[in-house]
Specification:
The protein is an alpha+beta fold. It is built from 11 helices and 10 strands. Strands 4-5-8-7-6 form a 5-stranded mixed beta sheet, sandwiched between helices. Strands 1-2-3 form a 3-stranded antiparallel beta sheet, with no helix packed on it. A two-stranded antiparallel ribbon has the order 9-10.
Amino acid sequence: MARGGRGRGGILNRGGLRGPFKPKTYVPRHPFDMALCEPVFPRVKPLPNEDSFTQALLKRNTDLTPTPQEQASVLNLVTKIQNAFDNLIVAPGNFDSCQVDESRQVGSFKKGTMIIGHNVADIVVILKTLPTKECIGALGNRILDDLKNSALTLCTNDRGFEISNAEATVRVLITTVHQNLRKLDPEIHLDYKIVQSHLAAIRHSRWFEENCHHSSVKVLIRLLRDLRNRFDGLEPLTPWMIDLLAHSSIMNNPSRQALPINIAFKRVLQLLASGLFLPGSSGITDPCEGVNMRVHTSLSLEQQDLVCLTTQTIIRMLAHGGYNTLLNGHSGFTNQTTIWDGVVVSPLDKAYEKPAENKEGDNEDMDADPGDEAMETVEN
């Protein structure tokens, strides 16, 4: 046989017979999690007393919880609009701009995680017909007419429309039945991704209702949403990511019992800081999607890096007793050097830098391997 020719079961090279090529299997890894590994690493001393931290968390949650008057005003408006849609489904009369299939409540008000000062509820309306931009305005005007309240205002947008009064707002999110998704025309209908996201919101709300019964999950969601609103580096986290983070951090442990709120709060930050939402991590699988899709893959590489470095700075502040500032402070604390109990905490630099786009006529990188990763790191 000639050198370099093909032999049985492999290729004959100078080094001898080599087996057939086997591509490497990609196996995502979960970052180290003390809550899952505690049976393997038993404690040598009891947990420190964190009663003051726990009380600070509960007090912050109380401050973030809407007042009974706010909740009642939102509930009153939601009930009226929901009844108007129910009547339209049963007896549309001469309304022929579109056909309503059903309406469902979603969002933070439905889940019980609404934050004070944000008196907004969400209703997803599923149409039997295609969601044209003209029919959205007609549907909004019909609901407004049925409510017969001059104090209400209507505002249309690219997702549907909003009906508001002086105390509350209800966002009506328009979508259509699944068989119509492929018929959508971006020039005359709502955007495909928007319509699809509204259908996903229904699945998320149903999953939350079935799995997030424990009150600690709702408390942690409210705290994390507040943290996201105040720290710019956590802004890429979506409400659905926060829901899954809170549920996993409280319920995903060997005992399958809810963890205390102080431990769960720190666990979320520790996981994000250790790379839970970075490339190569198993992350959290979306329970509402048929395929094994990890929720953090919707984030860009810049956003993944930003969330990680922000939580790394926050966890260092928290480790040196800065929880009061963390619960009531602002994003500036993660962007400047601070001192906590004599320990200097400096903000971290970005580890990811987006590659510069090649200009026309620039052939310097023509010989680069196309299989190389487009990830560049900045040396510290």
